[in-house]
């Protein structure tokens, strides 16, 4: 029996992971499930899967969680530290699917216990890629990608020599506003930005797909995970979301990964790696689909892509600044305090202001430094938004 934990179990990735595990309960011992506000779902899944512990991020929900688990053998816990402690419980495979920079410390704790970390939480690589990789190495842990593009690249590299890789192309659907007139983006509403043409995902990543901040983060994630220079990483708009990524080799070959837009593929690949097992995903009928289309991404429409290139060039803690500023701007957009197109303006301004204080960004990459710069960048983002509003 494999010991597994799911961090962010109540979210979109977490629920897809549970779907796969619940199909073969005899194969898994669930150590820990974590969530935040949705304690009813968390408790129901923990009972159903017979988890050792269920943890909510919110201290004030501990009693609710206890009540929902009453009569079961599942232990209840609450708070940020309790999530880190749950992540540190010995497990063979841990899914990192908390949204945002909040996923970093639990992911590091999971790596430090030495198993496999299946990484959906791209923010950990954006904020602290080098720290994630060195922690994995130090503890003999394995990091496997779950973001669909990175899983596709990873699969395209099996049996290949990295020295023969010329370029990596990650695809982007273009999100909700691919075909909108650019002038109209300032008027995009929260509801419009929260619906994705192809993928069913959490609200934050759906909005990040419309703004391309998601792809911007994935550029940085690609650089960190695969260790390739930024100039060798490209974004290609592909509205059908069937090719997830391509790897280009020095002999001119392009290996494309084609599959349905269903995260259970990438999750299942990471769950069963290095084997391929049967997965409950649709089999594509390409004759029925007929054609696939591609476009170059427009950096005027999606300034986030240009910002990601700057962050990759700067390196160090610039990714942590970028991510935190983006999270703060996204919070403000969700609260309907700023407009859709202002998110990129805010992030750019925070990057400019904070790179002036470059000793911050050149600082050593420790969890404390990342947390500190994350805090400063959120503060700076709020200051920028306040001055724009005033
Ligand atoms: P989601 O919003 O659906 O779920 C997020 C999970 O994190 C929930 O379980 C929630 O309870 C938990 N959480 C939220 N705030 C927390 C906090 N402060 N502390 C602890 N837990 C907290 O998000 P999602 O769409 O499942 O995405 C999860 C991660 O996977 C993100 O990093 C996202 O970018 C990445 N990802 C998602 C998809 C997708 O298809 N949904 C695809 C690729 C990558
Ligand atoms: Mg992705």
Describe the structure.
- The protein is an alpha/beta fold and 390 residues long.
- It contains 17 helices and 11 strands.
- The protein has 3 domains: 144 residues, 3-Layer(aba) Sandwich (Rossmann fold); 140 residues, no CATH class; 75 residues, Orthogonal Bundle (Rna Polymerase Sigma Factor, Chain: A).
- A 7-stranded parallel beta sheet has the order 4-3-2-1-5-6-7, sandwiched between helices.
- Strand 10 and strand 11 form a beta hairpin.
- Bound molecules: nicotinamide-adenine-dinucleotide and magnesium ion.
- The site of magnesium ion has 4 residues, from helix 7.
SSE layout and pairing:
Elements: E1 2-7, H1 12-22, E2 28-35, H2 39-49, E3 53-56, H3 62-69, E4 75-78, H4 80-88, E5 93-96, H5 104-112, E6 116-119, H6 122-138, E7 142-145, H7 148-156, E8 165-172, H8 190-193, H9 203-211, H10 213-226, E9 233-237, E10 243-249, E11 254-258, H11 263-272, H12 286-289, H13 303-314, H14 318-334, H15 342-356, H16 358-361, H17 367-389
Parallel strand pairs: 1-2, 1-5, 2-3, 3-4, 5-6, 6-7, 8-9
Antiparallel strand pairs: 8-10, 10-11
Helix pairs in contact: 1-11, 2-3, 4-5, 5-6, 6-10, 6-14, 10-13, 14-15, 14-17, 15-17
The site of nicotinamide-adenine-dinucleotide has 26 residues, from helix 1, helix 6 and helix 9.
Shape: globular
What is the average of the pLDDT values? 97
Structural class, please?
A: alpha/beta
Order of helices and strands: EHEHEHEHEHEHEHEHHHEEEHHHHHHH
Q: What is the CATH domain class of the largest domain?
A: Alpha Beta
* Beta-strand residue percentage: 15-25%
**Radius of gyration, whole Å:** 20 Å
Helix content: 40-55%
CATH architecture of the largest domain: 3-Layer(aba) Sandwich
Largest sheet: 7 strands, parallel
Strand order of the largest sheet: 4-3-2-1-5-6-7
Number of domains: 3
State the CATH topology of the largest domain: Rossmann fold
Distinct ligands: nicotinamide-adenine-dinucleotide, magnesium ion
Helical segment tally?
Answer: 17
- What is the first-to-last residue Cα distance? 59 Å
Binding site for NADPH: 10-13, 36, 38, 121, 123, 202
Binding site for 1-deoxy-D-xylulose 5-phosphate: 122, 148-149, 173, 196, 209, 214-215, 218
Binding site for Mn(2+): 147, 149, 218
EC number: 1.1.1.267
């Amino acid at each position: 029996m494999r010991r597994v934990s799911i961090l962010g179990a109540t979210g979109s990735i977490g629920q897809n992971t549970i779907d796969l595990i619940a199909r073969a309960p005899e194969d898994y011992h669930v150590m820990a499930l974590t969530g935040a506000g949705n304690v009813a779902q968390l408790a129901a899944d923990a009972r159903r899967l017979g988890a050792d512990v269920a943890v909510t991020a919110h201290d004030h929900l501990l009693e609710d969680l206890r009540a929902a688990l009453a009569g079961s053998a599942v232990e209840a816990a609450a708070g940020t530290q309790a999530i880190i402690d749950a992540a540190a419980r010995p497990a063979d495979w841990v899914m990192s699917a908390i949204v945002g920079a909040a996923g970093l410390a639990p992911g590091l704790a999971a790596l430090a216990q030495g198993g496999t970390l299946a990484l959906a939480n791209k923010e950990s690589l954006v904020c602290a890629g080098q720290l994630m990789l060195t922690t994995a190495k130090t503890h003999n842990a394995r990091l496997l990608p779950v973001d669909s593009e990175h899983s596709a690249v990873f699969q395209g590299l099996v049996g290949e020599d990295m020295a023969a890789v010329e370029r990596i192309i990650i695809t982007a659907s273009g999100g909700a506003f691919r075909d909108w007139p650019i002038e109209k983006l300032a008027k995009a509403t929260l509801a419009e930005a929260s619906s994705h043409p192809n993928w069913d995902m959490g609200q934050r990543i759906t909005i990040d797909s419309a703004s391309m901040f998601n792809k911007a983060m994935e550029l940085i994630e690609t650089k960190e995970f695969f260790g390739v220079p930024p100039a060798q990483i490209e974004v290609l708009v592909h509205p059908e979301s069937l090719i997830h990524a391509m790897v280009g080799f020095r002999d001119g070959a392009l290996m494309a990964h084609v599959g349905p837009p269903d995260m259970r593929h990438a999750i299942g690949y990471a769950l069963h790696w290095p084997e391929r097992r049967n997965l409950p995903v649709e089999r594509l009928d390409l004759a029925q689909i007929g054609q696939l289309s591609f476009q170059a991404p427009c950096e005027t429409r999606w300034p986030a892509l240009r910002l990601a290139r700057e962050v990759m060039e700067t390196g160090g803690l610039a990714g942590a600044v970028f991510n935190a500023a983006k999270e703060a701007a996204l919070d403000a957009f969700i609260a309907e305090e700023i407009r859709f197109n202002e998110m990129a303006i805010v992030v750019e301004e925070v990057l400019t202001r904070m790179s002036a204080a470059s000793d911050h960004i050149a600082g050593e990459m420790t969890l404390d430094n990342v947390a500190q710069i994350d805090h400063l960048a959120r503060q700076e983002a709020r200051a920028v938004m306040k001055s724009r509003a005033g």
